[in-house]
Amino acid sequence: MTVRSAPAHEELLAYREEFPILGRKTYMNSCSLGALSWRSMRGLEEFQELWNEYGASAWYNGWIPKLGELRAAYGCTFGAREGEVALSPNVSTALTMVASCLDYTERPKVVIADVDFPTIAHQWLAKAPLGVEVVTVPSEGRVSVPLDRWAEVVDERTALVATSHVLYTSGQVQDVAAIAEIARSRGAHCLVDAYQSVGQLPVDVHALGIDFLVGGSLKWLLGGQGMAFLWVRPELIQELQPTVTGWFAADSQFSFDNTKLRLREDAVRFEYGTPSVPSMYTALGGLSIVEEVGVGRIRERTDLLTRDLVGKLRERGFTLHAPENPEEHASITMVDVPDAPAVVAGLAEEGVIADHRFGMLRLSPYFYNTEEENSRTVDVLARVAAQFPERAEKSSAPTTG
Q1: Kind of pairing, strands 85-88 and 189-193?
Q2: CA distance 41 to 281
Q3: Among 73, 229, 234, 263, which residue's beta carbon has the most beta carbons within 10 A?
Q4: Domain region containing 86
Q5: Could you tell me where the DSSP H helices lie in 126-272?
Q6: CB 332 within 8 A of CB 358
Q7: How far is the C-alpha of 331 from the C-alpha of 304, rounded, in Å?
C-alpha cells in the first residue's frame, strides 16, 4: 500500500515531548481521551497559584478574562467569530440549552441517526412526556448513513435534525452541509455534534450552513474533562429564548438583580452557572498545541497514519468496519476481534492503550503518533487476538470498506 508523506514530519514528532504518556505507552485512544500535555499540567499550577495568591479576587485578576480567551480559542478551531461561542461543562448541558429554546408545538419531531452518540438521543427521548417524537435514521452497518435516508424522514413536522460530524462507530465523516440543507429545505434547524471532528478535521462552521455546533476538549482538543462549547448561528442568538439558564448568562451579572432576567446579547446568553476553572486551564493548554500545529497539518498527518494503519491491519487479515472512501475516513478505525474487552485488556498489558465499542476494537492515532507505533499496535494485536479460537471465524466475515 502506498501512503503519502506528511510535510514537516519531524516538527510534529517534536511535540511528542509535550505528552509524558507517549514515553511510556503506545497511545492509540485519542478519540476517547486526548493525551495530557505538560501545558495543561502547568495550567493547573497557574490556577492553584492564583487561588493561593488572590483568593476570591482571582476571579477578577485572571479567571474571568481567561474565560474570554477560552471562548475565542475554541472559536478559532472551527471558524467562529467573536460573540458566537458559549461555554458549557459538557455536551449534555449544551444540548439541554438548545433543547430549551425550541418550540415543539407544531414541529414535535427531532431526527437523529442510530449511530449518533447516545447523548443526542437521550436529550430528546427524555422529552417524550412533552410530546417530542424522536425519529431515528438507520445506518448501513453502523458505518455510514446514506443522505437519501435523511431526506425521507425530515419533513414539515421536524423541529431539529441532530447528528454527528464524525461517527464514533466507524470514523465516517458525514456530509453535514448536505444534511443541513435537507433540514433547512423543510424549515428545520440543524445541530452538529463535532466532538469527534473539531481538532482533527478542518471545520468552517459558517460554510456548513448549520444552526448549532457542540463539542468539547475531552478528545482531539487535548484538554480533558469538564469543558465544552456551544456555537450558535449569529442570526439566531437573540431570537432564541432559553428556558434554562445560569447567572453567567445574565447581562450585568454582578448587579445581582433578582427582580428581572435580561440575558446577554452575545452567545454567552446560552451559558449556565459558575464554570470549572481548573478545566478552563487544561482546555487552554491543549488548545494552544492544536493552534500551533494547525488543524490542516493535523488532518494531513492523521490521514497518513490512518491509511497506514488500515493497510497494516488488512495485510494481517483483520476485518475492518470503515468507510469505503479514505477521504471520508477520520482517525477512528474499528477492527473486528473475537472478544473486544479482553483484547483491549491484553493490549494494555503490553503498553498499547485502545478502546472498544459494539464488540469491536477501536484505534485512533493522532498527530503525535508514528508509523512505528502503528506497526507495534498491529503486531501486539495479532499476538493477543490469536489467543482466542474465535478469531479464525471472525476474520472470514465480509469486510466493509
Answers
A1: unpaired
A2: 8
A3: 229
A4: 41-291
A5: 147-153, 176-185, 205-208
A6: no
A7: 10
Return the residue matching grid coordinates 500500500: 1
Cell numbers 435534525: residue: 161
In the chain, what percentage of residues exceed pLDDT 70? Answer: 95
**From CA 162, how far away is CA 190, in angstroms rounded?**
6
Buried b (16+ CB within 10 A) or exposed e, 361-378: bbbbbbbbbbbebbebbb
Contact 221, 76 (CB under 8 A): no
Burial class of residue 254 in the structure, from the number of CB atoms within 10 Å of its CB (0-12 exposed, 13-18 middle, 19+ buried): exposed
Domain identity same for 128 and 21: no
Q: Rounded to two decimals, what is the model's pTM?
A: 0.93
Q: What is the pLDDT of residue 252?
A: 86
The verdict on 27 and 50 lying in the same domain is: no
Which amino acid is it at 289? I
> Which of 227, 210, 231 lies closest to 98 in space, CA to CA?
231
195-246 pLDDT per residue, tens: 999 999 999 999 999 999 999 999 999 999 999 999 999 999 999 999 999 9
Q: Are residues 162 and 240 in the same domain?
A: yes
- Give the burial class of 381: count Cβ atoms within 10 A of its Cβ; 0-12 exposed, 13-18 middle, 19 or more buried: buried
Q: Are residues 287 and 298 in the same domain?
A: no
**CB of 293 within 8 A of CB of 367?**
yes
pLDDT tens sequence across 293-344: 999 999 999 999 999 999 999 999 999 999 989 999 999 999 999 999 999 9
Closest listed residue to residue 30, CA positions, set 132, 171, 131: 171
Instruction: Give the total number of structural domains in the chain.
Output: 2
Say which amino acid occupies 342: A
Residue ranges in 56-138 assigned as alpha helix (H): 58, 64-78, 91-101, 118-125
Q: Tens digit of pLDDT for each residue in 17-76? A: 999 999 999 999 999 999 999 999 999 999 999 999 999 999 998 999 999 999 999 999
pLDDT tens digits for range 388-400: 866 434 433 333 3
